[in-house]
Specification:
Number of strands: 14
Strand content: 25-35%
CATH superfamily: Ribonuclease Z/Hydroxyacylglutathione hydrolase-like
Strand order of the largest sheet: 1-2-3-4-5-6
Radius of gyration: 16 Å
Number of helices: 6
Order of helices and strands: EEEHEHHEHEEEEEEEHEEH
Length: about 210
């Protein structure tokens, strides 16, 4: 059974996730750890749970979601996996960080590119992928059908949606991604978003003011 641990990191209050199962293998998703204290918090959890990181995944490559990529690479030897369209976004992340008044160590490039139709496996568990552009041009989400879990990045939030005023954002494309792709999944899916609290697809279908 997949367990999901979340951490709120960096000045953008981004949600970093560690997903793991009974084998002890884990995937680190969108590591946003920015300070040494945040890096240590991530490591301490992994050590306390006796986990073995085997995957580094990015839902998209905006600065707040990749700040910790280089740390995870140096600590665990893992290169990130993300959608190919996000390569340019990743390369520009340090410059965008400076625009917000923060510094970041550049992320290494992808070990491999991933897209809808690919399967992510760790331990005895798996995630399928949805391609959900709009917030960022190559945004993807990881979902597990058996447990009704979505790690969705900044596509959908509790009663809100991802911003589309950053380079590569497209409001109508985001709405289409949510309604035509994400909302095809069952209402029971729990959405672990890139910021803020968890929600369910059912709640957002009924009450999200941006999607009525």
């Amino acid at each position: 059974m997949i367990k999901v641990a979340s951490f709120i990191f960096n000045p953008f209050q981004e949600n970093t996730y560690v997903v793991y199962d009974e084998t002890g293998e884990c995937a680190i998703i969108d590591p946003g750890c920015y300070t040494q204290q945040e890096e240590q918090e991530l490591v301490d959890f992994i050590n306390a749970e006796n986990l073995k990181p085997v995957l580094l995944l990015n839902t998209h490559c905006h600065v707040d979601h990749v700040m910790g990529n280089n740390f995870v690479f140096e600590k665990y030897g893992l290169l990130p996996q993300y959608n190919q369209i996000e390569q340019r976004v990743l390369e520009l992340a340090p410059a965008h960080a400076r625009m917000f008044g923060v510094d970041m160590v550049p992320s290494p490039s992808a070990e491999k590119y991933i897209d809808e139709g690919d399967v992510i496996e760790f331990g005895t568990s798996r995630f399928d992928i949805l391609f959900l552009p709009g917030h960022s041009p190559g945004s993807i989400a990881f979902y597990n059908e058996k447990q009704k879990i979505i790690i969705g990045g900044d596509v959908l939030f509790y009663l809100s949606i991802g911003r589309t005023d950053l380079p590569g954002g497209n409001h109508q494309q985001l709405i289409t991604s949510i309604k035509k792709s994400l909302f095809r999944l069952d209402d029971e899916y729990i959405v672990y978003s890139g910021h803020g609290q968890t929600t369910t697809l059912g709640n957002e279908k009924r009450f999200n003011p941006f999607l009525q």
